[in-house]
Write a structure and sequence with these properties.
This protein is an alpha+beta fold and about 325 residues long. It has ten helices and eight strands. Helix 1 packs antiparallel against helix 2 and helix 5 runs antiparallel to helix 6.
Length: about 325
């Protein structure tokens, strides 16, 4: 464009000689030179903008790649934490896991007093039956029983603390408060009897019940002991390895009442302390069985019992 301007001036001078003065042609020449300079500057500016845009695009792409990698790492960490929580929750009851998540400080040893209802449960005739089962079948029966029992305990506000061979320890009223824990413990056991009825139907269909029917045991059931009283609930063990537990005379009495069912020929043995806290409709399930000495206590324990027929009793409420 710049080189074209002088040529245009000569042509304009010859062509417009009669019409325009030379001064006008000079002005026109200057105008075209000015336009050419502006066009050149614009071209340089556009080139700079283009170069800057390329640099900006590259920077944006790098930032986008970096953000993508950050999100990928964060998503992997979230998946790892979710799997970690799921694995831990398989070993720790949800009520305890929630308490651990809410703590700002690491757990410490020790505990506090609390009134609770303790429930011990074990499979009736388990020793006789297990003699004829291989290890895989034994584990299958135990896991199916425990799975059903845990669901029933949790549905009624309780927490399973231990699996003890063929038995289970559950507590109602700890670690979280439960105002009507004696009643919920009885409602839970009623539900567990119904669960065992369903399991026996399943074992009958699969033919697994042949192992106990050969010993003249028509079906598997459980025995349970319930006692309400004060315990110390908290962390038991060492600084490097601890567990949540409830300890005290209340736990011992519940365990002894479970064993007392063999003598009484009952399914559920309930202490007088628990019976006194029950509403009248639940008290009607129970039959007084007198006072009995239990190991670890000098004074006899008042005992009430009921059988598996409580599953046929209609209830206004079953779970919380």
């Amino acid at each position: 464009i710049i080189g074209f301007c002088p040529l245009f001036t000569i042509v304009a001078k010859e062509f417009l000689f009669q019409q325009l003065s030379f001064e006008i042609s000079i002005i026109l020449n200057g105008l075209f030179i000015g336009l050419a300079i502006e066009a050149w500057r614009s071209a340089l500016l556009l080139q700079n903008i283009q170069n800057n845009d390329v640099d900006n695009i590259r920077e944006l792409l790098c930032l986008s790649d970096q953000r993508y990698m950050d999100l990928w790492r964060e998503s992997n960490e979230l998946r790892r934490l979710a799997l970690h929580n799921r694995n831990i929750s398989s070993y720790i009851p949800k009520t305890l896991l929630d308490r651990l998540r809410d703590r700002q400080q690491p757990p410490i040893l020790g505990g506090s007093k609390r009134e609770v209802t303790v429930v011990f449960v074990d499979i009736q005739n388990y020793s006789t039956v297990s003699e004829y089962l291989d290890p895989e079948q034994t584990i299958q029966i135990l896991n199916e029983c425990f799975s059903a029992w845990v669901a029933d305990v949790q549905a009624h506000g309780g927490t399973v603390l231990e699996f003890l061979g063929d038995g289970m320890l559950a507590v109602f009223g700890a670690p979280n408060d439960l105002a009507n824990h004696p009643s919920q413990a009885l409602y839970c056991l009623r539900a567990m009897i119904s669960s065992m009825e369903q399991l026996n139907k399943s074992w009958s269909k699969s033919g697994l019940d042949k192992y106990w029917k050969r010993k003249n045991i028509s079906q598997l059931g459980f025995r349970s002991g319930i006692h309400t009283g004060t315990v110390v609930e908290g962390n038991l063990g060492s600084l490097t390895q601890m567990k949540y537990a409830v300890v005290g005379d209340t736990v011992n009495v519940a365990a002894r009442l479970e064993q007392l069912n063999k003598k009484l020929g009952s399914t559920i043995a309930v202490s007088g302390d628990t019976q006194a806290l029950l509403p009248e409709d639940i008290k009607s399930w129970l039959v007084p069985r007198g006072h009995h000495l239990v190991k670890g206590r000098n004074q006899p324990v008042e005992v009430f019992s009921c059988g598996s027929n409580i599953s046929n009793i209609k209830l206004l409420s079953r779970s919380i």
